[in-house]
Design a protein that fits this description.
Shape of chain B: elongated
CATH topology of chain A: Sodium/glucose cotransporter
Helix content of chain A: over 70%
Oligomer: heterodimer
Number of helices of chain A: 20
Order of helices and strands of chain A: HHHHHHHHHEEHHHHHHHHHHH
Shape of chain A: globular
Structural class of chain A: mainly alpha
CATH superfamily of chain A: Sodium/glucose cotransporter
Strand order of the largest sheet of chain B: 1-2
CATH architecture of chain A: Up-down Bundle
Strand order of the largest sheet of chain A: 1-2
Strand content of chain B: under 5%
Largest sheet of chain A: 2 strands, antiparallel
CATH class of chain A: Mainly Alpha
Number of strands of chain A: 2
Chain lengths: 534, 123
């Protein structure tokens, strides 16, 4: 058996043990959906980091920096700074006024059924698209990392899917939290080790490291090229590069605070103050991690080199190949198993947020008008929907196959979160006049604008040369109508516009009269959900 | 640890068991609550505007003034990298200042909750 496989199996065994332990404690809605609200500040902070730092950030970012230099590092910056929006605007009001989902906050003063139905639709869209992207990536990656163990793309996708279903169905939020905590610690440890090894390679001389980044050599179309990888502009070129950068920044800064799987984490702590502390813990970890992508990305560019990575699995393999170059096969196995843990923790977080929203918002509150017909029904529905969501994700990921162009699904998730979710959360908390029509129109416009602009953008609309075949081909073979990959710059204003217009064109005195209740609740924590006693 | 306030959690949209709608209006109109909101706004609004301006300066400068941002500062390290790196420290500093300021918000909020509690107890 190969070393990576052994390490994968150790991780799986530990997390299944945790799931078994958690399953005995996950009875009742508050325990299942919110880990009884007894997760401490630092634990939740680490779990938020574990929930957030996906394979896209660990493997993707290292790859983008290794291939396109400085421009890739801009993702790292946005992914941290985004947490200031979470900290200053959404975390505390959400914890104070909500119960299990973001829709709880909207439902206070608006008509619960239409608002919850729309919010649930948006949550499910963000979570499932994001999950499919992770699953396709996971399948391709695990198959590559475990090459020689006889594990194919299909086996890998099914394996990841089944594990994530087991964590969520049996262990609920408590198991998910601990899987995320372990993953975050592994990821931080592995990244730190890798960074130190990169520095050691340059004799612990930062100047030498940055000098090496100044002349990275690789081959492009048979020609040898020498480039300064610290210079901007290798990825984002005129004419649309600058706009694309701003649009990406907007999606990250406003989208993170609207990602359902991040928002649900704030319901697992006892109060708003702990939610705040957990954001700060998360920012320390996430910031340190993304600063270290400097060493991962540029280290791969200078030590391993583009040419070698391109012929040994492509961009996503940059970090594992760097580990192999610096410390051999055992370290390669260790970094690979961290990548695997990373994917599992993120997909488990996505599954629980999607199933919570379906069970709590859609089943209990929309279909059954807020009444749980018998005790435990909500949790049962959530378990079933976690199973269904997982099964659908496995099925779609296998259908798309390992070469499918899925990177746009991550951009789409952030765009929907920023354009649909964030405007209605913010307006609901801060604007007295805001009402149900505004919320539904805002969610609808944000959702349609994000999906629409990505459909007519260069991610799905481009003319491929005949050498590109199968799932890697663009969906529509014609020049893109909308020039940007990230629709945020247009879809976020449209989301706000929809919400504002819908509000101004309708009247709902009850929404205005209940604004004081939400205002007092969200700002003081008066009447907030408490931690369970047991 | 202060004793948590004993207000009943209530289902969203359901009838409040202990605190009536007019009670929320009364709290919202109280000078203590107005004071809390004013204190929060004087920190949060400038902090939000500052970080948005500071952050978006990065893509704008990198996008529209790449030559300027490529200016080397120390060895091969250029302005673009240093400005990007400074964003991390900016974010941590704003977060730290917010946590310090939020200690004051917590005290004001606790007074409001206690007052609301004792008001109900007297009924």
């Amino acid at each position: 058996m190969s070393t990576p496989l052994v390490m994968f199996l150790i991780f799986i065994a530990i997390t299944l043990g945790i799931t078994y332990w958690a399953s005995k404690r996950s009875t009742g809605s508050s325990a299942y959906f919110a880990a009884s609200r007894r997760v401490t500040g630092w634990q939740n902070g680490i779990a938020v980091a574990g929930d957030y730092m996906s394979a896209a950030s660990f493997l993707g970012i290292a790859g983008i920096i290794a291939f396109q230099g400085y421009d890739g590092f801009l993702f790292s910056v946005g992914w941290l700074v985004a947490y200031l929006t979470v900290l200053l605007v959404v975390a505390e009001p959400l914890r104070n006024a909500g119960k299990y989902t973001m829709a709880d906050v909207l439902a206070y003063r608006l008509k619960p059924r239409p608002v919850r139905a729309m919010a649930s639709l948006s949550t499910l869209t963000v979570s499932t698209f994001y999950m499919i992207a992770q699953m396709v990536g996971a399948g391709a990656l695990v198959a590559l990392l475990l090459k020689g163990s006889g594990i194919t793309f299909h086996t890998a996708v099914i394996g990841v899917g089944v594990l994530m279903i087991v964590y969520v169905v049996f262990g609920g939020m408590l198991a998910t939290t601990w899987v995320q905590i372990i993953k975050a610690i592994l990821l931080m440890g592995g990244t730190l080790l890798l960074s130190i090894l990169v520095l050691a390679h340059f004799g612990f001389h930062l100047g030498a490291f940055f000098d090496a980044i100044g002349h990275v050599t690789y081959h492009d179309k048979g020609q040898e090229v020498v480039k300064d990888f610290l210079q901007p502009g290798l990825r984002y070129k005129p004419p649309y590069g600058p706009l694309e950068l701003i649009s990406l920044g907007m999606a990250l800064i406003f989208g993170t605070a609207g990602l359902p799987h991040i928002l649900v984490r704030f319901y697992t702590v006892p109060d708003a103050k702990t939610a705040r502390i957990s954001v700060v813990w998360a920012m320390v970890l996430i910031g340190s991690f993304y600063i270290m992508t400097t060493f991962l990305g540029f280290g791969a560019a200078t030590i391993v080199g583009r040419d070698f990575i391109a012929t040994h699995g492509g961009t996503n393999m940059s970090a594992p190949l760097l580990a192999q170059a610096l410390a051999g096969d055992i370290f390669f196995a260790f970094i690979s198993s961290i990548a695997f843990a990373t994917i599992l923790a993120v997909v488990a977080g996505l599954t629980i947020s999607a199933s919570t929203s379906f069970a709590h918002d859609f089943w209990t509150n929309v279909i059954h008008k807020g009444v749980e017909r018998k005790a435990g029904e909500e949790v049962l529905v959530a378990r079933i929907s976690a199973f269904v969501v997982g099964a659908v994700a496995i099925f779609v990921a296998i259908l798309l196959g390992p070469t499918a162009n899925v990177a746009f699904l991550v951009a789409l998730a952030f765009a929907v979160a920023a354009s649909a979710n964030l405007p209605v959360i913010v307006l609901s908390i801060f604007w007295r006049r805001f009402n149900t029509v505004g919320a539904c129109l805002g969610l609808g416009t944000g959702l349609v604008a994000s999906i629409g602009l990505i459909l007519i953008g260069p991610s799905l609309m481009a003319v491929d040369p005949p050498t590109v075949v199968g799932a890697a081909r663009h969906l529509f073979q014609r020049p893109a109508i909308f020039p940007l990959e990230n629709p945020g710059i247009l879809s976020i204003p449209l989301g706000f516009l929809g919400a504002i217009l819908g509000t101004l064109l309708s009247h709902e005195p009850s929404a205005e009269s209940k604004f004081n209740e939400l205002l007092v609740r969200s700002n003081t924590g008066l009447g907030a959900e408490k931690a369970s006693a047991h | 640890m202060p004793e948590p306030p004993k207000v009943q959690a209530m289902p969203p949209g359901g009838a409040p068991p202990a605190t009536s709608a007019t009670e929320w209006d009364r709290v919202a109109a109280s000078p203590e609550f107005r004071d809390l909101m004013a204190t929060k706004k004087t920190f949060i609004i400038p902090a939000f505007v500052f970080f948005i301006v500071y952050y978006f300066a990065l893509p704008v400068l990198v996008g529209y003034a790449p030559q300027f941002m490529a200016t080397k500062v120390i060895g091969n390290v250029n302005l673009a990298y240093l400005f990007a790196l400074s964003q991390f420290f900016m974010a941590w500093t704003v977060a730290w200042l917010y946590v310090k300021a939020a200690g004051g918000f917590d005290r004001l909020a606790r007074d409001i909750i206690e007052k609301s509690e004792s008001g109900k107890g007297g009924k």
